[in-house]
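Practice set, problem 2.
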Amino acid sequence: MNTFKPLTEAEERAGKAIVDSAYTVHKNLGPGLLEKVYEVCFVHELRKRGIEAERQIDIPIEYDGIVFDEGLRLDVLVENIAICELKAVDQVNPVWQAQVLSHLKLTNIRLGYLINFNVPIIKQGIQRFIL
């Protein structure tokens, strides 16, 4: 049986800031812009809240005892405890959900978000994943 481990206080705080920042960016910009625009504004909002966030982070992966530098590229890494994959699309591809889960497993991070800004109401565009 898989026992659920609750999020830490730091993960909860980061998660609240992520959702709040996504909401603020969407409220101010609305849908229909390029992903890069949302990404830079989203990270700005996180930093305004005192949350450390980095964009387009390359994460090496280890496979078969070898470390490959060309492993993963994360859209946004938050406080080194949460991953955010940002989109600005009409339709969310299920492979992106799998991508977030894979990134979580490969980085040993438990908290991830798939955020699509191209929606009328941002609540519809936010998916949270916890390992």
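Problem 2, part (b): a different protein.
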Amino acid sequence: MAHISLRVTDKEKKTMENYADFHGITLSDAIKNVFFQKLEDEYDLQTIAEFENAEEQGDVEYKTFDEVISDLGLENEI
């Protein structure tokens, strides 16, 4: 398993430890969780921006639930 070093001030370290303690997890897990949550949030924002751009360009097609069921040939399944 890889190791990463991170330089922080004593105050930052205490804040990070308090966060981890509050959530009942290790400092390492807290840092990983926060990092990957931020990464996911940025991906979500990028996806939303791409959708909004496609919508502005008229490249988005909306369908009703019934239309989707019909397109998938699932009329007799529901």
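Answer key, part (b): The chain has one domain: 10-71. The CA atoms of residues 1 and 47 lie 31 Å apart.
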